[in-house]
Amino acid sequence: KNQVEQSPQSLIILEGKNCTLQCNYTVSPFSNLRWYKQDTGRGPVSLTIMTFSENTKSNGRYTATLDADTKQSSLHITASQLSDSASYICVVTQRGSTLGRLYFGRGTQLTVWP
Amino acid sequence: DAMVIQNPRYQVTQFGKPVTLSCSQTLNHNVMYWYQQKSSQAPKLLFHYYDKDFNNEADTPDNFQSRRPNTSFCFLDIRSPGLGDAAMYLCATSITGGRNEKLFFGSGTQLSVL
User: Fold this and answer.
1) What is the pLDDT of residue B2?
2) A5, closest residue in chain B (CA to CA)
């Protein structure tokens, strides 16, 4: 069964600290993996995309990693800011369909406290 | 400079009273999607349009219908809302639905059913 599991479900950190969010998937065949940030009451916004051959990719304070062998990805946030408080959703695209089939995780709710 | 616009942001309806949610885009994307997202859950794809071609998900209830009168607009009609239909409804677009394309989401419409 194609699934995307994220951990932890929620996380609270202090401003300025680093954190790492995890995403494990069983989607096959794999095409790519995206991390989205969803602010409360808003639609998700893409942060980064990881394809099969990519191990790590950075977007400012966000660094995503991908291990396609173990089917795991992580999103590392450096020097967290209050504005990082949001839900972070891992989305895996399945290869093989004309319109890429997407599998969403439930997200990790991150709260950054001052 | 909103590119995917959903109206209204909040919608309250009565049990069984038809309701229509709207989505418009300024991106001229070919594909438009409707997702249902319940609290702390992953977004669930209801259906999508590739141009005028309508694609329904197998498990989308008949109670949910959609219309796309032109490239820019797409509507979600709920014919007889039940209490279980209370959720955030997200509209999204992509250029052609290609596997590596990201989705552009609107801010969502939060639907309450009384």
Assistant:
1) 64
2) B42
